[in-house]
Design brief:
Layout lengths: L5 H33 L2 H12 L5 H33 L7 H32 L5 H27 L2 E3 L4 H12 L6 E5 L10 E4 L6 E5 H6 L2 H16 L2 H24 L2 H7 L10 H38 L2 H14 L8 H7 L5 H10 L6
Parallel strand pairs: 2-4
Antiparallel strand pairs: 1-2, 3-4
């Protein structure tokens, strides 16, 4: 860890130790709450009670029950996320006021409701039509929806949380577009995201497919990093495009969504489990908390595997950035700047990295850059 001063290493570790209990506590509390509702009659009672407030029909139970599960889950998470935000504020990583933070939470909740309510209604229309075989068409629809959301995300969802402006003409814009041309990647435009109104953290990414593809750079990165370091960050992100990581991730996500729905179908047809949850069959709106609990368990169980795949993809993107730029020294400088500015733990405990990290640690990425050699010829 000679690339970082003892003070920088200690600062990253202190932030990790301060926020980790609250971050994990929020995850654990959310999972336990979902299981408590889904694996006991309490969830069925909640669906029945809130449905009665809106007339008590099957549709009222479904829609009001879904909204109640989402809203109460969000309320449960608030103390934990607020504490994580406070900790990060002490380290200078938060620039957004409480009002803006609250607005973002409400935006996210509203967006979730807009997506979830029609999905749940459609899902239970299938269960009503075929209480035992609903999961087969639902699996196909889940896969199609995953693909559709991946395409629509940069166009419809990203603008809900950020404002984007074109990067002005100049050397940096030309350099970034030049990197894309050398990579034979079609990029429509280079945009700047107004991340500074929320955070001081640095980042960039490439989003969209085909004609909608664009390079997005945080304004914090432009004002903090050297132009060459910005190029290295973007070269890494272009690596994801070059290796079709977004497309592959979308396909894998679609397959995963379909498999998850199939597992839900098996669990929802297990009569003992339905009885425990206070529901009669999968078409009963009172089974909604049970499906949510099963989905949460599947997500928690597959989380470490998803992280392992993500770390492997990030290593490949790092290699691509080095091959595209042939500049390991600036790559190392870029990794150092990202780690110091984002107050990262540059060498976290291995168990935490295996369970939760989506990227390799800064020390691993720097070590790999030092070992890199240009391909022969």
């Amino acid at each position: 860890m000679d690339d970082f001063t003892p003070e920088e290493v200690a600062r990253g570790r202190a932030l990790r130790r301060a926020q980790l209990p609250w971050a994990l506590g929020g995850r654990t509390a959310g999972l336990l709450y979902t299981l408590a509702l889904g694996l006991t009659p309490a969830g069925a009672g909640l669906v029945t009670a809130v449905g009665a407030l809106f007339g008590g029909s099957r549709t009222a139970q479904l829609l009001a029950g879904t909204a109640a599960l989402l809203v109460t889950g969000q309320v449960l998470q608030l103390p934990f996320s607020a504490r994580v935000r406070t900790v990060r504020s002490h380290y200078g990583l938060v620039t957004q006021g409480r009002r803006g933070w609250a607005v973002d939470i409400l935006r996210g909740l509203a967006l979730t409701l807009v997506l979830a309510l029609p999905l749940v209604y459609g899902l239970y229309a299938l269960t009503e039509r075929s209480p035992h075989g609903w999961w087969l068409p639902a699996a196909g629809l889940a896969a199609l929806l995953t693909i559709a959301l991946s395409f629509l995300h940069p166009l419809l969802i990203e603008p809900v949380f950020n404002r984007f402006t074109p990067l002005p003409d100049g050397e940096l814009r030309s350099a970034l577009l030049g990197l894309a041309r050398r990579d034979a990647i079609r990029v429509r435009q280079v945009l700047v995201a107004d991340a500074s109104r929320r955070t001081t953290a640095l980042n960039a990414y490439v989003s969209g497919f085909g004609a909608s593809r664009r390079i997005v750079v945080y304004d914090t990165l432009l004002t903090t990093a050297e132009p060459r370091e910005v190029e290295l960050v973007v070269a890494h992100e272009l690596g994801h495009v070059k290796h079709r990581d977004v497309l592959t991730g979308t396909v894998l996500g679609a397959v995963g969504a379909a498999v998850a729905v199939c597992l839900l179908g098996l669990l929802a047809n297990w009569q003992a489990l339905l009885s425990t949850a206070g529901a009669t069959d999968a078409a009963d709106p009172r089974s909604l908390p049970l499906l949510a609990a099963c989905a949460a368990l599947i997500g928690a169980a597959t989380g470490p595997l998803q992280c392992a795949v993500s770390r492997r993809i990030e290593v490949r993107a790092d290699l691509h950035a080095l091959e595209l730029t042939s500049d390991p020294e600036q790559f190392i400088a870029m990794q150092r700047r990202l780690a110091v500015t984002n107050v990262s733990d540059v060498d976290p405990p291995r168990l935490l990295e295996l369970l939760f990290a989506t990227h390799p640690s800064a020390t691993r990425r720097i070590t790999a850059a030092r070992a890199w050699r240009p391909p022969a010829g």
